[in-house]
Amino acid sequence: MSKRIGFNVAGRVQGVNFRSFTQNAAQSHGLTGFVTNEADGSVAGEVQGDESALQRFFKDIGVGPSVAKVDTLDKKDLESKSGESSFKVV
Fold this sequence. Notes:
Elements: E1 3-12, H1 18-28, E2 32-37, E3 43-49, H2 51-61, E4 69-78, E5 87-89
Parallel strand pairs: 2-5
Antiparallel strand pairs: 1-3, 1-4, 2-3
């Protein structure tokens, strides 16, 4: 069963390839959704897929690329979307 989760990552996450890292993590786990920079310096997005893939994805982005520093990773359940076929950086 597919689940969708909204997320917000704060810390040193802009200017360190965090969005690209997030896209690669999502694609490697077969997930769909998007990620974007926020005006407050955080990175936010939505991700959808099966529960075990989502757990692995959040483990990956909870650390991020080597030059990033994740302070907080907030998540919230969302309604699933149909027809989405990829994970995009926007």
